[in-house]
Amino acid sequence: MFSPPASTNDNSLPILINQEMHQHAKRFSQQHPSETGAMRTYRNTLAVSVVNRYLNMLGIKTRLPESDSWNPLLRLANDVADLVVPQGCLECRPVGTTDLSCYVPLEVQCDRLAYVVVRLDSEQEASILGFVSQVSSEYLPLADLRPLSELPQLLARYTTVVELRQWLEGIYQQNWQAPETLLQSQQLALSNLQATVQRAKLIPLNLYSEHSDAVLLLALSMPESADISTDTMSVKAQLYPAIAKQETVSGLRFVQASVDCLLPDIKLSIHSAHSNLSRDVISRAYPRDNCIQIPQFQGELGEQFTLTVTVGDQHIEEQFQL
Amino acid sequence: MNSRSRELDRQLRQLVVQMCACPSGSAGRQSAFSEVICLVTRSRKLWRESTPYYPDALQEMWEYSLQNIDHPDYGYDPDVCGVVTWLDDRLKKIIRKHRDRAQRQRKRHASATQLQDGQVLDPVDRLVAPPDPQPALDLWIRLLDWVKTDPDQVLSSRVCLRHPHITAQVLLLRRLPPDEQSWDTIATALGANKTYIAQWYSRYCNPLLRTWGQSQGYLDSMDT
Q: Under 8 Å CB-to-CB from A256, ≥6 apart: which residues?
């Protein structure tokens, strides 16, 4: 299927392709009725898998299950090879050993942080050639690629840390929505309606486990007379099952819970190195919880903390700065 | 050590110094480590074998090395050895662990058994044949059906403001197999700019597919 590389690029990074990567690629390709579609899916899946391995080597968290390239319907309707990371989305395009340019389909040319090119050298190995942050046509010359070692700096420009003080100014990032968008009225009744500001975010547990999706609700409180720029803030975190139904243009996606309670053994934890804070709460089996929460904590300006939702061995992390 | 090895070792030691000068988890450390991985891998000096667990062992070695390179007890010590040697030692330890695990698993699985009449039963004969690939195409068939019939008019009511004759349904019918029309073809046929239409498709059609997929439970049976 592959031929040996014609020449080697000094900046390229060889990555081994293991059996699991081949199995995924094969399974996904079998879902496509046409031969060209099947081959395209096979190559795209390998390219995404290879970049995923590379980012993991660098300790960069990836969210592969949330990627369109890992969604059977999106694969049928798009020539897509995306890889979701906390900062956004990378497109991972495959090339052959004799290609001088990389084909980038029009439908993946928006909403991407970068385009990473992967040369499929053989059944066992692929080389990451480099990346660009923008494309202007369907054919990206390989000579235009930036060295892979610059990718961490590019990703670092996009923050993954939610700056909570901005919420007090009405600025919300990274899909943090008004609570009523994601929670039903009986859930809102349990929330902190008296807090200064509350925002909710969908936690796509269903992509990582058998659980339905959940909603993380964060409530911030400061006394009205307080000075935003210096005083401490109090923070409260709650986790609810996602039972409201909503569809927005941005493609809010979730699986509706069949009952309005959390399944057991979902853990919500908070960790702050600054104040040596580490607490967690786990949803119960009997009786079931319709919400779990971390008790209120006071944080100082600039303090960072992390909230983690854990099911089984899968974690979804959200980072914050006060 | 020949001059090329010396040069490689010098570069690697310098990169490790750069790495350790940057905070753990920082882009600077990741970037320097990325160069280390690249130089070492391309040098082909690491132990290689063709066992099925080797790629995972190698991956584990890199992830371990990043986390532990400046560990006081088992981190890299430049006075003891070169960088490649340190990485190689870690790699061999991890390979041993994988090898032992593989051996234990082999012992647990059924070995070939001999029947009374002297016939030998190979466990492979008892394996179930791989499933018929036809169910894999089921998804496509159902998707196409949903797009064609559009029972809740979700697709036909998602209209492109700039080109009201273009709806999500119109585009999906052309892009999905069996048609799989190119953007050039679609743009010409519908009288629209291909870049604009492709972007509109990504932003307005894909979300509908995601929502429908989850409502149908297709993602529950998705492979992860």
A: A212, A242, A243, A245, B215
Q: State the nearest Cα–Cα gap between A33 and chain B, in angstroms.
A: 6
B12 touches chain A (CB under 8 A): no
**What is the DSSP annotation of A93-155?**
EEE-TT-SEEE--GGGSSS-SEEEEEEE-SSSEEEEEEEES--SSSEEEGGGPBPGGGHHHHH
- Tokens representing residue B197 in the block: 């239409």
Beta strands A161-163 and A314-321, pairing class:
parallel
- In this prediction the pTM is 0.82
Q: Would you call B206 an interface residue with chain A, using a CB distance cutoff of 8 Å?
A: yes
State the pLDDT at residue A36.
Answer: 94
Q: What pLDDT, in 10s, does the model give residues B113-153?
A: 555 555 655 555 555 555 555 678 999 999 999 999 999 99
Q: Is the ipTM of this complex over 0.85?
A: yes
Check if B131 contacts A (Cβ < 8 Å): no
Q: Cα distance from B79 to chain A (closest Cα, Å)?
A: 25
Chain A, nearest residue to B53 by Cα: A18
User: DSSP letters of A200-228?
Assistant: EEEE-GGGTSSSPPEEEEEEEE--TTS-T
| Chain B touched by A306 (CB under 8 Å) | no
How high is the pLDDT of residue B122? 56
Which segments in chain A show pLDDT lower than 70?
1-10, 174, 228-229, 244-259
Residues B72-105 have pLDDT tens digits of 888 999 999 999 999 999 999 999 999 999 999 8
Among B residues 61-90, those touching chain A with beta carbons less than 8 Å apart: 62-63, 66-67
Q: Chain A within 8 Å of B190 (Cβ-Cβ)?
A: no
